[in-house]
Amino acid sequence: MFDAGDEVKGAIRRLCVCFVGFFSWRNSANGSWFIQALHRMLDKFRYKPLDFVSLLTRVNHEVAYAFESNAAQAYMTHKKQIPSIVSMLTKDLYLTPK
Length: 98
Hints:
The protein is mainly α. The protein is built from two helices and two strands. Strands 1-2 form a two-stranded antiparallel sheet.
């Protein structure tokens, strides 16, 4: 088990990247789908031991199945999004509440 302490600060540099030619959807009132799902999963698994990569897998599921675009332009509506997890972690990372 790896505890997120001082040695981990700054290790997580970027959580969301949008590749050229793709969209990262955002609700104007509630923010990006990814951040909404991340917030929900962090809250849901606050007191359950779940490593960070497993948590992000659940975020992927939430974004893929719970969200769909609803835009004024027909070609932009009913679209989906799927985050991509890329990890260079060499140990399990657990985020624990203070």
